[in-house]
Amino acid sequence: MDNILQHLDSPDVLRRLIEAGADITVKDVDGANALHLIAAKRNPVLESAQVLLDAGTPIDELDSRLRTPLFRAVYEGESSETVSWLLDHGAAIDVPSVRYTPLQAASHYCLTNVMFLLLDAGANPNISTPEATITPLVQAIDSQSRLVEAVTLLLAYGADPAFAGYGRETPLAKAAYLACSERKPSQINVVFQLLDAADRRGTPLAQNVVNDAFSRCSHHYVHDIFALFLNRGANANSPLGENIESEYTRPLILACETEDIPPEHIDFLIRQRADPTLTGTNGRSPLHAAACNGVVSAIAPLLGSGAVIDQPDDRGRTALHVACDMYKNLVPDEYDLQTQAGLFMGNPVDLASMNEREKNTYRMFVETTADRLRRCLHQLEFVRRLLEAGASPTAQDNDGATAMHFASITDDLQLVLLILQAPFGRYVLVDNSGKTPLHWAAEHGAANVVRAMISRPSAGLTRRPAFLERMVTKTCSLLEKSHEVNATATTTPPSQVLCYSPFIRRILPYVSDRDGRRALHVAAAAGKGDVVAALLERSDLPLTRVDNVGISAMRLAEERNHLGCISKIRVALRKQKAAREYSLRMERLSACVIYFTSAVLILGVLLGLITAAKRWSMELDWIECNTIMQALEFICRQN
Questions:
Q1: Are 521 and 556 in contact (CB under 8 A)?
Q2: Within a 10 A sphere around the Cβ of 549, how many other Cβ atoms?
Q3: Residue 56: count of CB within 10 angstroms of its CB
Q4: How far lies 385's CA from each of 294, 391, 495, 598, in Å?
Q5: What ranges cover the ANK repeats (predicted)?
Q6: Is 449 exposed, middle or buried (0-12, 13-18, 19+ CB in 10 A)?
Q7: DSSP string covering 150-183, please?
Q8: What's the pLDDT tens digit per position in 585-607?
Q9: Alpha-carbon torsion, ordered 327, 331, 335, 341, to 10 deg
Q10: Which long-range contacts (CB under 8 A, 24 or more apart) does 550-556 make?
Q11: Which residues pair with 394 in a beta bridge?
Q12: How far apart are CA 315 and CA 325, in angstroms?
């Protein structure tokens, strides 16, 4: 028995063994007979297969996994010669295995030569069974190689773009999904192929088939695909998504979140009656979607067609909230920047001395940094345009946060200044937990914003953090050296930044949230040493102030082992103690001076009084003597 399976490449030996009475029905551990094993080879000896067939081996016998020799020739051997031989000898074409029929397997791998043999032999191009549910056309569309050729072949043999069979999706729906998710030209062309094939047959696709396929275009906006479906009757306001009940978007939302989208594409959707006030999942409108990526070109068409500029989403956030919130994700902190940069930020770049790996790392850093800077500028411009169009900087979300709360955590004063320059932008509102924008800035380590909020205008405050200036300069230098783009760095000069009125700047550090914590408490708890240092520049802050549960900023830092904050607060406490002692000494000295001066004055007054009294006493004595003499003279005269 073993000899038969071991000599499949030797037809003469195989013939002698069979003539000697060897068992041709012997199988391996997978239940495969000798013909299965020959068919599974990439370069089989078909003469051995002929010997087995002549000896009575069944050509369509199933192995333990319900696979025929033809299926294994397609799925494992991928040999058109073997497939042709089996078909010529009467192999059944549409027998399903556990998952596929032979044509479905060939379509899955886009084996166009094998597909042609099977289709030419009469394979059903629309086959779908309870065991093998996915049609050959869907299998071909889902593959990655030789996609167009395989689809063209199946359509030529009558594959139906609208037939789903036992599967969950039609070929058109699958093609639309892949075209809008991966955006490959070949996959986009397949959608046109399927629709053209239906038109050529004179059987236009039913509207529900078109709508179903259109609903799968939920990942990216591909204008040609959307225009194709909308011109065939799809609704420009229909929800899009794989599972619309749980998560969905809409065509206009998808278009508005696409970076660098031409305004005419948005105008096209609006002409197709797309409603700019309709929302998707989480209540986000097209304007919210544009705010996520700073799509400035979407603002004018949306507002011109009736979009509500302060329309809230399910979290109560307007487009201005979203734009400011997304900006913080685009501005990298200095540590992140230096980590990405590796050797390039602090050292001269010499491309000639780099190996290929270092060059690739270098280029990746340059491209990533340049892209983030570009998106930062787009986001700033988006915020500026929104504010110019009348967006409210005082609108509060469900948590009570305003756009200034989100802007304050970026540590970039350009965004803060945009909001402050808007009408009512200087109003200070607290969120539902009683936190001001200063609390948010302190919690997120935005030291530059903290200084601007509590300090007097100073040349030390810049519109952009110093590290971001260095990033701009360095990136432009790297781009020029790599000869990828001609760039010039423009340094933002120090500017006089006046965030709030003098009164607000004076009281803002003293505002407590609902937990009784001031900005210093928040910064110490978060371990933001730079913010603690910025707040401590205000020498009048009471450092021993406790929150509602009796915890001071120093204790919060100690509990979390924030050593940098602890040392800064300790130094400030010592300074305040020394200042208090000095003030006390000065008060005592002043009191002594006052007492001494008062004593001198009193003594002078007393001396003056004594002198006056003496003079008065002498005058009294003379008057008294004169009176006595006159009295004596009168008495003498009477006598």
A1: yes
A2: 8
A3: 9
A4: 10, 9, 22, 68
A5: 65-98, 282-314, 433-456, 515-539
A6: buried
A7: HHHHHHHTT--TT--TTSSS-HHHHHHHHHHHH-
A8: 888 898 888 888 888 888 888 88
A9: 140
A10: 551/521, 552/521, 553/518, 553/520, 553/521, 553/523, 553/524, 553/525, 554/524, 556/521, 556/524, 556/525
A11: none
A12: 13
Helix (H) or strand (E) holding 266: helix 263-271
* Class of residue 66 by CB neighbours under 10 A (exposed 0-12, middle 13-18, buried 19+): middle
Indicate if the pLDDT at residue 569 is higher than 50.
Answer: yes
DSSP letters of 484-547? S------PPPP-----S-HHHHHHGGG---TTS--HHHHHHHHT-HHHHHHHHTSTTS-TT-B-
Least confident of 63-67, 231-235, 365-369, 617-621: 617-621
What is the value of pTM for the model shown?
0.77
Is residue 209 very low, low, confident or very high in pLDDT (cuts 50, 70, 90)? very high
Q: Which pLDDT belongs to residue 459? A: 35
Q: Which residue has the tokens 């197709």?
A: 272
519-562 pLDDT per residue, tens: 999 999 999 999 999 999 887 788 888 999 999 999 999 999 99
Q: Please, are residues 450 and 442 in contact by the beta-carbon 8 Å criterion?
A: yes
Residue with tokens 């420009």: 236
Q: Please, which residues have CB within 8 angstroms of residue 36's CB and are 6 or more apart in sequence?
A: 61, 63, 67, 69, 72
User: Which of 373 and 1 is assigned the larger pLDDT?
Assistant: 373
Residues counted in the chain? 639
Q: Which residues pair with 546 in a beta bridge?
A: 552
Helix (H) or strand (E) holding 596: helix 563-638
**Which domains, from first to last, does the chain contain?**
319-511 (1.25.40.20)
Q: What are phi and psi of 16, to 5 degrees?
A: -65, -40
End-to-end CA distance of the chain: 188
Rounded to an integer, what distance in angstroms lies between the CA atom of residue 159 and that of residue 197?
Answer: 9
- The conformation of residue 308, written as its DSSP 8-state character, comes to -
- Show the tokens assigned to 42: 């990439």
Is 2 exposed, middle or buried, given 0-12, 13-18 or 19+ CB atoms closer than 10 A?
A: exposed
Structure-token match 């406790």, residue found: 546
In angstroms, rounded to a whole number, what is the distance separating the alpha carbons of residues 277 and 158? 43
CA distance 362 to 344: 7
Return the number of other C-beta atoms located less than 10 Å from residue 337's C-beta.
Answer: 20
